[in-house]
Structures are given as C-alpha cells and as structure tokens.
Amino acid sequence: MAPNGDDATRIASAVDEDLAKCDIEHAEKAVQDAVLKPPSIQHMSNAELKEMENKMVLKMDILIMPIMGVLYILNYVDRSALAATKVYGIMDDLGMSTTDFATAISILFVGYIPFQIPSNLLMTRISRPGLYICSAATVWGCVSAATAAVKTYKSLLIIRVFLGVTEAVFFPGVIYFLSAWYTKNELGKRLAALFMFQMIGSAFGGLIAAACLTLDGRYGISGWRWLFIVEGSITVGSGLIFMMLMPEYPHNARILKQEERDYAVWRLEVEAGAGEAHEDVTTLGSFKLAMLDGKIWTMVLCMSFAQAMGSSVNFFPSIVQTLGYSQMTSLLLTTPPYILAAILFYGISYLSDRKNIIFPFYVGCLCFAFVAYIITLSTLQTGARYFAMMLMPSVCTGPQILIYKTMNVHMARPYPKRAAGVAMINAIGGLSNVWASYLYYDAPHYYAAFGALLGCAAAFLLTVTLYLMYVRRMNTLLSGTPEEQHRAMKSGVTQQQIDIGWRYIGY
C-alpha cells in the first residue's frame, strides 16, 4: 500500500535529515583534514576529545567568566555612578546647570573613545592580556574614588576624562579576550553573560547608590562623595586580587594541561583559520585591514545607533524620576528593568548559539524599541511609561550583544584585525554618547531625545537588513566556482577559511 501524504512527508523529512547529517559529518572531516591536529592529541578519539573539551570549557568558565563579570559590573557602576548622584545633589554642590551635567556625562568619552583602538592593538602584542586588563581595573578604581575629592565643576570634568582613558582598556579588551578562548557556538552565551553582569550591576547599582547616599553627612562627607569612595575602593581591591588569578591566551594558559592548550588552539583554527598562537600579522597591517573592511564599518554604524539608544541608560534615574516618586523610590525603581534585561539576554544568547541565528533577534529588539519610545513620547500615564522604561535597557543593549557576536564570527581572522575591529566598533560607535547626552531636556517626555532614538532604531533596522542581503550574497559566492570564491576573498575571507568551508552565519 502506498504511503499517505503525512507518511510520505515524514519519510522525506527523515531522508533529508540523514543526508544533512552525512553532509555535516563530511564537512567536519574536511575541516579537520585541512587543519592538522597537534601531535599531543592525534591519538585521541572524538569521544575523548569531547570529554576533554567539556572539562576544559568548564575550567575556562569557572575562572574567566566570574572575573570578567565582576570587573564588568565594577566598570559599568564606576562609569555610571555620576547619573545616580544627580538625584542627590551633586549639581547643587558643584554649581552645575543641566547642560553642565550633560557635559560631565559625555566628556568621559573624550578619554574613553580614542584610547580603545590603540589599547586593543597593544593587547594583541603582549603575552599577558589578563594581567593587562586587571591592572587597568585597579587604575580606574583609583581614578573613580578620586572623584569624591572634586570641589569644582572643572575638576569634575578633568577627572571624568581620566576615568574614560583608564576604562578604555576594559570592554573592547574583554570582547577580544573572550573571542580568543571560545568558539562561535560558545561565544554568544558568554557575551550575553557579560551583558547580564552589566544588567545586574546596573540593577544593584541603584540599590548600592541608595545605600551609599544614606551616609550623607557622615564624617562631614556628602552622600554622593561616599558613593565614589565605596565603589572605587571595591574596584581597586578586586583588580589587585584578580590580576593574580586571571589566565592569558589558551596557548600559554597555566590553568590548562599541555594537551588542553593544544586542543584549545586547534579547535579555534578548525573553526576560523589560524589562531592566536600561529598568526604573524603586524599591528599596523591589521589596523589597515580593519579600516578597509566595509563590514566592520557597517557594524560601527550599527553600534552608533545602538549607543545612541543606550544613552537613555546614562540618564535612567532622571527618566524614572519623571514618574513623580521620591528620590529613594526612583533609584529603587531603576532595578527591575535591568533584571528583566538580564533574563532576556540569556534567552537571546541561548537561542542564538543553539540555532546559529542573529538577524531575527535584531528585528525583535528594535520592534520593542519602537514601542518603548513611542509610549514615552505620547503619554504621561504612569503604568504605560514604566512599561516603556522596563524595555529601555533591553532594546538598546540586546542589539549590542549581537553586533559583537557578528564581529567575532564574521571577521574572525586575522586576530589583530578582529581586535582592531572590536575596538573601532566600541570607540567610534561610542561617539553617539557625546551628542545624545545633550538631548535629555524638556522632561517628562524628552521629545528631542526619544524622537532621535526612534529615528536611530529605524536606521539601525534598515542598515542591518542591508547587511543581511550582503552576507547572503557573499555566502552564495563562497559556495560557487573558484572564480566566485576568489571574488569573495576580496571581502576579507582567507583561502584557509574557504578550504575549511567557512561561511557567514546568523543571517
């Protein structure tokens, strides 16, 4: 008896799955043949390698992620502490106007932006990037604590510039550092974990600020000064402790056995070509490659829109205060939106890594951004406005996770180019924080600010859609004739990547 339509469909689907599985196994074998195993692991079976990999990744997660997470919390809290002090009188104490406060917020990026690219390029040339990152944390903690001593508006501006210079090391450095340890299927969840730590820091930053500000007047010191003293001191202590624990690159990590080091490097090479231990590209040459890559500039443009949207976080306590609650209640109400964002980031990263998809999550975040900004512009109803505020941290930071993941999987090699590209995205894209800081006036609607952010969300969606069309075209070329593959190489793909069947994923 002939199978009915449903049976035929199931049979055809099973056949397709078997063929797909065979294709994947064939592709994996071709990749492994193209990148030879190191002698120390050649005798090991696939099951033994998988078991070793699980133990190795667990080691990495147990040591690297908590350290990076805590430092990221402190990095973000130290940088954003000024926003909380507005609620508790820093403007009166230093004689600042609304424009002066916006300048104090934005001038941090005068130091932060130009030092990120040289810092990341320097990191590719040193053997101990972990020590470099933790040492920077100690220094910016000292600068942050010193903010408590400012007596005038001008001295606040100077200390903010120095804070930007010292913090410039951290974020782009961490993004590059994680990409030197984790594969593309692991990286998304780790980047999301990093942003989840940021959201946790932002959530509890409001609680910490509320607690520190209750010290107002203790020993004749204002509450906002206590905030800088406490947070800066914690950062200094953490940096000193972590610099003794932080590992370096996989090929020289003391936490791994020799065969684990070899395997850690090999699996990254299998995925994207020559790894950190084997590439020989000059710093200037890698920077030039990054500057000439249109894909990186597209991600820079996307980050510009995302950072502009993220400017709302710099003024979040003031935005929440427009609901009409007390100073203490306003600070406490800043916590739930960040907790929601942390939960959403985990879901996005889990699905993105599991399904190898990126673009649909851009669309989802940006659609919710439209909702948040339109509500803020159009109503004064407390419930609706707080609903919009609940979305704000998620819709601006979620796309940033996806931008960094795109950067690290689409521009994986050569690694100094990747490091330069990450720094360019964060530095040049971060310029939006400067001009956007001056738009937060005319409360409670903040028409200029949220009107501009609505436009940025629309432009972001258009740009990333055009990028989708481009990488799909490149994938078609990579699957084509040798002549078409040669054309694809002009966009930055290496011959080794073609040999191992590399593709632009997620779009």
- Please mark out the parts with pLDDT under 50 across 5 or more consecutive residues, or reply none: 1-28, 274-278
Please count the helical segments. 24
Q: Which percent bin holds the helix content?
A: over 70%
**Largest sheet report:** none
Oligomer: single chain
As a whole number of angstroms, the C-alpha radius of gyration is: 24 Å
The coarse overall form would be: globular
Q: List the helices and strands in order.
A: HHHHHHHHHHHHHHHHHHHHHHHH
For the termini, the CA-CA separation is: 43 Å
Structural class computed from helices and strand pairing:
mainly alpha
Give the number of DSSP strands.
Answer: 0
Return the average pLDDT rounded to an integer.
83
Strand content: under 5%
Question: What does this 3D model show about the protein?
Answer:
The chain is mostly helical. It has 24 helices and no strands. The protein has helices spanning 5-34, 46-85, 90-94, 98-106, 108-112, 116-123, 129-146, 153-167, 170-179, 184-213, 223-242, 258-272, 283-291, 294-314, 316-321, 327-333, 335-355, 359-378, 382-410, 415-429, 432-436, 447-478, 482-489, 495-499. Helix 2 runs parallel beside helix 10 (184-213) and helix 10 (184-213) runs antiparallel to helix 11 (223-242). The protein is globular and about 70 Å long.
Short description:
The chain has 507 residues and is mostly helical. It contains 24 helices and no strands.
